[in-house]
């Protein structure tokens, strides 16, 4: 039949140990199956797997039986990217032409600011995230968007794309 085990967590020699009493006394030749569900926290720095050392001790056996179980660790976190353009809509007059060689911003078009926010929706923490944005800067051999500057907030770092503010506007 199925029975619930009585298990007690404790620390032995700096190691976390869970001691479960399986039965006393047991009949000779008895076979048992134990399913355990363990909840372990703080696995962010554990790498790809965690290993549990199992030891079966009996008062009738002079040496314990040892085994180990390796369980893969998989972090789960849902990321959400939100974006906004300010102004939301921009229309250049059909007769507008940029001024070649000018260093004034207004001679190159209307300023549009794109803001992106990357949010971690959990449940796990996230580090070492790389976000790559592909911005179309040319269309049909002509400048579509002139990339002026790139900035970040919140301890992130960015690598400037090639051609960023090429005309030093």
Outline of the structure:
It contains no helices and eight strands.
Q: Using only CA atoms, what is the Rg?
A: 31 Å
Q: How would the global form be characterised? A: rod-shaped
Which class of secondary structure composition applies to the elements? mainly beta
Q: Helix content range of the residues, please?
A: under 10%
Number of strands: 8
Please provide a written account of the structure.
By secondary structure, this protein is mainly β. The protein folds into two domains: 6-72, no CATH class; 75-168, no CATH class. It is built from no helices and eight strands. The chain has strands at 6-12, 15-21, 49-56, 65-72, 77-86, 113-123, 138-139, 142-143. The strands form four sheets. The chain has a two-stranded antiparallel sheet. It has a two-stranded antiparallel sheet with strand order 3-4. A two-stranded antiparallel ribbon has the order 5-6. The model has no long low-confidence stretch (mean pLDDT 81). It is found in: Membrane. Pfam families: Integrin_A_Ig_2, Integrin_A_Ig_3.
């Amino acid at each position: 039949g199925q029975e619930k085990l009585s298990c007690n967590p404790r620390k032995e020699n700096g190691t976390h140990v869970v001691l479960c009493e399986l039965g006393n006394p047991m009949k000779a030749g008895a076979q048992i199956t134990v399913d355990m569900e363990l909840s372990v926290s703080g696995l962010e720095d554990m790498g790809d797997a965690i290993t549990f050392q199992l030891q079966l001790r009996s008062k009738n056996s002079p040496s314990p039986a040892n085994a180990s179980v390796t369980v893969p660790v998989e972090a789960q976190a849902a990321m959400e990217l939100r974006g906004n353009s300010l102004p939301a809509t921009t229309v250049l007059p059909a007769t507008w032409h940029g001024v070649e060689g000018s260093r004034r911003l207004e001679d190159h078009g209307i300023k549009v600011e794109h803001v992106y926010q990357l949010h971690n929706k959990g449940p796990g923490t996230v580090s070492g995230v790389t976000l790559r944005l592909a911005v179309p800067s040319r269309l049909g051999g002509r400048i579509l968007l002139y990339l002026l500057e790139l900035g970040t907030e919140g301890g992130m770092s960015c690598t400037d794309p090639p051609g960023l503010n090429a005309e030093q506007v």
